[in-house]
Amino acid sequence: MTARRTHILCALFFTAIIMVNAGGFALSEAIRRLGPVPLGEAITYSPLVVDRDGKLLRPFTTADGYWRLPAKPEEVDRRYISMLVAYEDKRFYSHHGVDPVAMLRASWQILRHGHIVSGGSTLTMQVARLLEPRPGRTFADKAAEMIRAVQIENRLSKEQILQLYLALAPYGGNLEGVRAASLAYFGKEPKRLSTAEAAMLVALPQAPETRRPDRAPVAAKAARNRVLTLLTCKGIINTDQAKAASLEAAPQGRRLFPILAAHVAERFARQDQAQNPSMPQKANLVETTTISRFLQEQLENLARERATALGGGVSVAIIAVDNATGEVRAHVGGVGYFDKARAGQIDLAESLRSPGSTLKPFIYGLAFEDGLAHPETLVDDRPARFGIYKPENFDDAFQGTVTMRRALQQSLNVPAVMLLNSVGPTRLIARLKNAGAEPELPLDAAPGLAVGLGGAGVKLTDLATLYLALARDGEALPLIWRPQDRALAVQPHRLFEKAAAWQVGNVLIGAPPPENAIAGKIAYKTGTSYGYRDAWAVGYDGANTVAVWVGRPDGAPVSDLIGRKAAAPILFDAFQRISEKRTPLLPPPPGVVFARTADLPPALQRFRPGSLPEVATSGPGDAPLAISFPPDGARVDISSNEPDATLALKAMGGAPPFTWLADGLPIAIGEERREAVWDNPGKGFARLSVIDAKGHTASVQIRLE
Predict the structure, then answer these.
(1) Inter-helix orientation angle 360-370/498-508, to 10°
(2) Which of 83, 166, 493, 682 is 20 to 30 A from 446 via CA?
């Protein structure tokens, strides 16, 4: 080798080293200028409201108006994944962001045709482009994509990269991601796709605007069939599958996104917006509810069917609650969310309405608890006047002497008002509020006797809360809408003592059922507001509580809109859709008195309207009946007497014999003396009542320590 050649080779060698170093420096500088690697942390997804099992109830658009729903590879049909990889990037699982073979092919096509035929982009490069959109398809843009693809591969797994593609791929208009596209074009989640549907979802992102099924169905179908042909050549699908898929009709437009439990979802969205006023919606919000999607669909269909049958702009609202937890399993706030004639976007389950007779069971519960009455106590259903108030029955007739059981089952008005006059409407409202309901009275009006017949505004959610307490033997729980609300729920309050609540349920389960329904399975009560504006039915078995409202959203009267005819059949049908088998009510608690009318203590055999729960006056010449010991509000220490604790009781005034009750349960019957003994009273709050021979009653509230 000559010296000249040696010098030339040395020069070329050093020049190559300089060029490599210069290229490396340029590459390093280019990478530096690109900035931090985008990994998808800043992506804002559509807020989602899901059911208790994570199934979608209702999505919302992002703040910038896109449907962008997250999707994991395991949540998408595996057939679609295999078709996508085979069509877009067959070496996806082996390359490191850039596929050299694909790039060489693309380069050869450019040299041969003089322009870009295929970009040679891998799925990772497409993800890089989706994360960092670039306006053109220049070589500089392509180089940046390649750099980003390598960087992304070094930071994320293949599954994470695929997940980003599934969430961000464009499908036309404001649809991004395979899940949004599947819901919009096929009306279903992408977990189960046909061959034709999977091929369509593979084809659309290549030219999303020119292949949109809602605007260019012919182009969309042609693109889908080209994918089917190519995948057949690659052996991903067989000829028969491709032929059958090519004959399948392509979607002609977009479908509505799921909108189940729409009002509950809307409520959470508003709450979130209130908590984040600087943002239209919280980024990446997923609200999990206690609702069951399956049951929600069932009851929404039921409400729609019955409202359509009733006609006249009538709507239906339904709530189903799990007795054990207080969790709402279904909430139908109305019929047709977009139905303006039925005011579909108003949550009718949260609207104040006249409850009709649905509050009557709580009047009876107070009377049973106070010892004023027993289910077999006789009461007169006859014309009566309370000042200027003269209640009448629904059929304008009277039934004479009936038991309390029959009076409640037949929803007789006069006996209910007699009882309310004795227990006091103010006390009834206070007890309902303590249980979590929020009854509304007319402005500046005090509770009156009309409250018992519908003279107060009540929400369907209030009635569900109150009847849930009856189903739980008197223990009131707040309705739970989301799993995290369980920890925030207040301690249970007691609506009634166990015996009184059980007695009410034992009466209501004997109410005559609607036509073609089985009796003795559901404890329920109906109600009809004045002027046929609202029809109600609320009931429970041992597992669930269901509340139903029927009426016009504008409050207009509807001819013959009666709770028993319009709402009760929906109630029984709702229970059937929850489960074909009914769960029995809770067994009677200890101390419940089972007796015929003739076997009751004399004071409980017939209800005398003159008696009052707190202090009542005896007949002429008699001293007023009162409890002298223990006095009202007393704190009594019984700890020194354990384990055989007793509490001495003493009455003054009244006419013997006396009957003593604790929390509605008899502890001494037929006592001729004014003294009695309460054995093993236990600790805690207790309500003591004494009834004399004339039916007069006195009560005190004490605390045993």
Answers:
(1) 140
(2) 493
Tens digit of each residue's pLDDT (9 = 90 or more) over 40-54: 888 999 999 999 999
Give the span between the Cα atoms of 573 and 316, in whole angstroms.
Answer: 13
For residues 618 and 651, what is the distance between their CA atoms, to the nearest angstrom? Answer: 13
* Alpha helices (H) along 114-177: 123-131, 139-155, 158-168
In single-letter form, the type of residue at position 574 comes to: A
Question: Residue 48 is inside which H or E element, if any?
Answer: strand 48-50
Q: Let me know: does 539 contact 554? Beta carbons within 8 Å.
A: no
Is residue 702 within 8 A of residue 688, CB to CB? The reply is yes
Q: What pLDDT, on the 0 to 100 scale, is given for residue 411?
A: 95
Short-list 243, 233, 230, CA closest to 196: 243
pLDDT of residue 634: 78
Catalytic residue among 121, 292, 354, 357: 357
Give me the sign of the Cα torsion angle 203, 205, 207, 209. Answer: positive
Segment 449-473, tens digit of pLDDT: 889 999 999 999 999 999 999 999 9
Three-class secondary structure assignment of 575-595 = HHHHCCCCCCCCCCCCCCCCC
How confident is the model over 555-567, as pLDDT tens digits?
A: 999 988 999 999 9
**What whole-number distance in Å separates Cα of residue 113 and Cα of residue 121?**
18
Query: Whole-angstrom Cα distance, residue 13 to residue 3?
Result: 15
Question: What contacts 559, CB < 8 A, 6 or more positions away?
Answer: 532
Q: Nearest to residue 578, comparing CAs of 542, 613, 602?
A: 542
CA dihedral 413, 416, 418, 420 (to 10 degrees): -130
φ, ψ of residue 538 in degrees (nearest 5): -130, 135
User: So what's the pLDDT on residue 16?
Assistant: 41
Q: 506 near 375, Cβ under 8 Å?
A: yes
Reply yes or no on whether 88 is catalytic: yes
Give CA–CA dist 163/168, Å, rounded.
Answer: 9
Q: Which of 445, 446, 443, 381 is nearest to 417 (CA)?
A: 381
Instruction: Report which DSSP code applies to 599.
Output: G
Q: Which of 51, 50, 45 is nearest to 67 (CA)?
A: 45
Exposure on the CB side of residue 699, measured as CA atoms within 13 A: 22
DSSP element (H, E) containing 574: helix 568-578
- The average confidence (pLDDT) of the chain is 87
Q: Assess contact for 547 and 467: CB atoms under 8 A.
A: yes
- Going along 289-367, which residue ranges are E strands? 315-322, 328-332
